[in-house]
Design goal:
Elements lengths: L2 H18 L5 H36 L1
Helix pairs in contact: 1-2
């Protein structure tokens, strides 16, 4: 579990808590959704970077 997974998990938890307390905690819901988006985007970008690095290493090696 890396930092992106933790951010996405925190986002899901805050999103659920905010939706459960909809009216007074709308800000909590927005922050949860933002953290979930950041976590998912960061995870995708990290996976793409790792795959790109693997291709570069494979090209250099052989």
């Amino acid at each position: 579990m890396d930092r992106w997974d933790v951010l996405a998990l925190l986002g899901i938890a805050l999103l659920g808590a905010g939706m459960g307390l909809l009216a007074p905690w709308l800000g909590l819901t927005v922050v949860g959704a933002a953290l979930l988006g950041i976590g998912l985007a960061g995870s995708v970008l990290a996976e793409k970077a790792a795959a790109r690095q693997e291709l570069i290493d494979a090209k250099k090696g052989g």
